[in-house]
Design brief:
The protein is an alpha/beta fold. It folds into two domains: 342 residues, Alkaline Phosphatase, subunit A; 112 residues, no CATH class. Helices cover 40% and strands 15% of the residues. The chain is built from 17 helices and 16 strands. Strand 6, helix 8 and strand 7 form a beta-alpha-beta unit. Helix 3 packs parallel to helix 17.
Amino acid sequence: MRRLLAILLLAAAPFAAFASGSQESIPASSESTTAHAKYVFLFIGDGMAMPQINAAEAYMNAESATAPGVEKLAFTQFPAQGLTTTYDAGSFITDSASAGTAIASGNKTLSGVINYDESKTKTFKTIAEYAKESGMKVGIISSVNLDHATPAAFYAKEKSRSNYYDINMQLAASSFDYFAGGMVRIDKTPEGSKSAHDVMMEKGWEIAGNRAEFEALSPTDKQVYAYYSTSFTRNSLDYAMDQEADDISLAEFTAKGIELLNNEDGFFMMVEGGKIDWACHANDAAASIGNTIAFDAAIQEAVAFYNAHPDETLIVVTGDHETGGLTLGFAGTKYASAFDEISNQKVSYEYFNKFILEPYKEAHTNGGSLDDLMPAIAENFGLTDLSDYERQQLETAFAQSMGENVVDSDEQSYLLYGSYEPLTVTLTHILNQKAGLAWTSYSHTGVPVQTFAMGAGSEAFNGYYDNTDIFRKVYGIMIEAPVVSMK
């Protein structure tokens, strides 16, 4: 028995080092393929696991059918499908920095760390850097700020994801060709220092900050930074359900990226649907569903490109982790679901806070009445037929939002509302529960995510594997000589 254990330990040793991300080099995995992709798309739905996907598909079905079922998103019909673990080096539940590092570089690290090892002394090279070194063009796109953890994981190396200024200066120093989506956090620029925008302008980047400038972009040798941000969305794109006709969507940023990056040497493009995660942190199912559908629309732009270049294109879609502990089922409805209830919500929690609740609070510093807001609640959430219990939930949450400490403790307050506006998160909870959806957390969870792929070498993405393996699989198909090294 002891001998058998020793043999098993020796056999496991290489895989332990492989998982730790501490080796100087890692040989090609047994899953390497002879297929080669000249054009590679990597889509990351931040916070997106099967509950988010299934909720979107169930909602789309409920909008057009009377029987239970799903209307499939484009990417869930991809021929290769796998299940992917997401734990990081220090926690079973990852954050976006360590998950992004795993996907981008093939290495585990600690939560909050971007492309450094656990000791924070060695850095990792990313798949985007390998692509650029091989002569490909590179694009990084996100619906949230471009110095947020997931997009940063492809171009930056930082000991803390919160060091926004250092991260966005690395973006400005990058040789990548196309950055698009949300703004970098120029509000984090130290007084007297140049912002990333200043540096990009000095270096001659093409910068597009509105629709007219964006639409005028055409293929060029210049680096391009295209962003769109309204005043209330924290340097990100608006939630899909809040967007107006002139807003630039994630799909449009993706289509423009294809136009600008397409060349005979190929390209690598990472596209993040970041606001799926933000919606799930706030337990807003309608915003999550809307942004999952918007994410799928961006993927459809890549599918259209694939249809023109089927033998040379690889599209991979994954999530970095699940957010919110979303479940399709609620105790109060037992086996019943009513996903069409979600359509009663007209705006995101963020919009409701900014344009309805905050002005009301400012105008009623000495108190107010929930009845004052019931017309707006009915209009924006469709909540008119409330039970006594639901009404009491709203009364308590309203008082808490208005500054009254009516819950017993900070612990109880967090369990009820997280760090969000008590009234607004209670509205989304009640509506979601009527639909048959529920949440267990305001943070991430540790459940596996699903990975989908189509195109050259896509069969490598079948099976059950770790998020670090996504790097290895993409590298093997894109670069053709799978070796990972620390810098």
